[in-house]
Amino acid sequence: MFLAGVAAGAFAEAQQQPAPGPRQDLTKLTLEELANVEIVSVQKRPEMLKDTPAAVTVITSEEIGGASATSIPALLRRVAGVHVARLNSSQWAIGIRGFTNGATRAQLALADGRSLYTPLFAGTYWDVQNVFLEDVDRIEVVRGPGGTLWGANAVTGVINIITKRAADTHGGYAVAGAGNVERGFGRARFGGSLSEKTDYRVYGMYFDRDPEAHDDGSDYDAWRIGQGGFRIDTARSPSETLTFQGDIYTGRAGRRGTFASFTAPFARTVEDDARLSGGNLRSRWDRSLSSEKVISIQGYYDRTNRTEANFSEARDTLDLDGQYRFRLSGRQEVAFGLGYRISDGRTKTIPTLGFVPSDKTDNLFNAFVEDTIRLVPDRLTLTLGTKVERNDYSGFEFQPSSRLSFSWSPRHGVWGAVTRPVRTPSRFDRDLVLNISASPTAPTFARLLGTDTFETERSLVFEAGYRGRLSRHVSVDLAGFHNRYPNLVSYEAAPRFQETGRTIIPLRTANGTEGTVSGVEVAADVRPSDHFLLRAAYSYLNMKLAPRPGSTDTGSSGAEDTSPRHQIALTTSVSLPANVSLDAGFRWVARLPTQVVHEYAELDARVTWRPLQRLDLAFAGENLLHSNHVEFGVGALGGRGTSFVRIRRSVYVQAGLRW
Contact, 55 vs 416, CB < 8 A? Predict the structure, then answer.
């Protein structure tokens, strides 16, 4: 049902260590410390957020520890320029600078540098991207293209989940909780030292989540997953480190799907559990050859299994990547890298849905080079780079980028960038054969057909921004962008024909949609006192999509109304007496006309009390302003259903113990 939904949606639119202390209070971080957070997602090297020539938001471990959110997508709601809509209990539609959809296409998600992208439909399965939240060091969200370093399909943004080092998670931690929607959850982790140079941690977690509310009273979308994993970090010398980590999971997620049948009734709705399982292993080696030369090599293996009522896939992915960075002079730093990925997918489907061929192995070769030139030290920096890829669908792809940043004081700076990111074809674009019933009582079908002529979606992106600390109490981050898209996906009608008693209306994938996307994003941190922090975000989006001359597709341009024109997010962290803290998040989302979703406002909040140094008690709630509300007007990842999924108010209690 996942793939049928994606298609319909696109078509319709052990050494004991001292116990760790409690999480660091976010209100204790100064605005300067928040600006000096170290990130790696923009240029694949450590740099201060304030010096980064890109639109970046960092969700810190302090924010994660205080939030009521129980998933990564829910945390992303606080980021300017990111639209997150919950589809049902286990699935989300996510858009960065537009193009919100359940497949989350054209955006790249990473976990510790491991790509979460699948070449099946050029998106991410967010329902299996669950992490031990207390072990997340930060989430870096790049709003805008990141293809020069990360590769094709990082068109609208990059989401990079970075976990803590094993040395930072010594001791034990366990948390358990339950609520009206979060039926029950628990997770535990223990870390320590295997030797003087080697640290480790192991963890296990489980959650069981209730269905959301449905207009027709159905309760099909319960969600439960068990997961475990480990991480080992070895400092073989002061200049050499080795990391080895892995995860394994299994679970079920309820699904409802309406799909075609070649026998009456020709449209059938099925409710069933999707069976989800998989795992990954990752290793990374870093070596400083000198103070000016660094080499890094990473490899990972990823296995996913997914079985739904009308579709199943098993996929194995192996990725190898190397990077070398060196200084040519005191003002110039060069980095280049090489990589190779092989991903083998095997699918099984019902007769009205298929991929031709059913099994396929994708190969991806890539190389990048980037030159950072400090034209005026500590003032003016120019970064030039490009990524070159060779894939099995469109051959060679080039993604050049130029970025310029200027700081006229340590507290103020501006930046600008011009980039050319691309989204390469996926199996969905080239190999799909999907029949959609046009009538439950007549054998008439729209047939969505992938084609070999579908080209890489190109874009040209212009960005500019400003970061500054206006005073000791206020800092501001502004970004504006203008994206040109000359050849987005469309579905072109061909003459209908008869096939063994059936009427077939062909719809072939093409590049018949064009348009522009422009917008402004504003983020501000305000600290009126030492115990209070307010973080505000506003985004404005203007999408204009239209059929190209000669295109017969008028539906794909409707994607311009699947993302809100305006969004506001306000989050607060307050330290109160008696070891009590309050974290709250308010959001307002403008209407989505093509989704028949009205504007709405919601509030999330969490109160934490620490009666003992090692014990935290929390009461949290999400969507507190309404008993339920609609966030997206289509069924899970797909076409419009017969009823809306209404996201419920959720409250839960939890206890956390450290030792």
Answer: no
The domain that holds 623 is classified in CATH as: 2.40.170.20
Token pair 């010096």 is at which residue? Answer: 51
- Tens of pLDDT, residue by residue over 359-370, are 999 999 999 999
More confident residue, 119 or 30: 119
DSSP class per residue in 408-463: EETTEEEEEEEE--EE---HHHHTEEEEEES-SSS-EEEEEE--TTPPPEE-EEEE
pLDDT level of residue 119 (50, 70, 90 thresholds): confident
C-beta separation of 367 from 388 below 8 A: yes
Instruction: Give the chain's domain count.
Output: 1
Mean pLDDT value across the chain: 91
Q: How far is residue 348's CA from residue 362's CA, in Å, rounded to a whole number?
A: 18
Cα distance between residue 651 and residue 565, in whole Å: 30
Q: Would you say 148 and 400 are in contact if contact means Cβ atoms under 8 Å apart?
A: yes
Domain with 538, as residue range(s), is 2-658
Q: Are the C-beta atoms of 192 and 202 separated by less than 8 Å? A: no
Judged against a pLDDT cut of 50, whether residue 13 lies above it is answered with no
31 has pLDDT over 80: no
Residue type, 558: G
Long-range contacts of 590-593 (CB under 8 A, 24+ apart): 590/564, 590/565, 590/566, 591/564, 592/561, 592/562, 592/563, 592/564, 592/632, 592/633, 593/561
Q: How far apart are CA 360 and CA 346, in angstroms?
A: 7
Distances (CA, A) of 117 to 154, 429, 525, 621: 10, 15, 32, 31
pLDDT > 80? residue 16: no
Q: Is the pLDDT of residue 257 over 90?
A: no
Whether the pLDDT of residue 6 is over 60: the answer is: no
Report the distance separating Cα 644 and Cα 636, nearest Å: 10
Provide the terminal-to-terminal Cα distance of the chain, rounded to the nearest Å. 44
Instruction: Name which of 50, 158, 96, 154 is nearest 415 in CA terms.
Output: 50
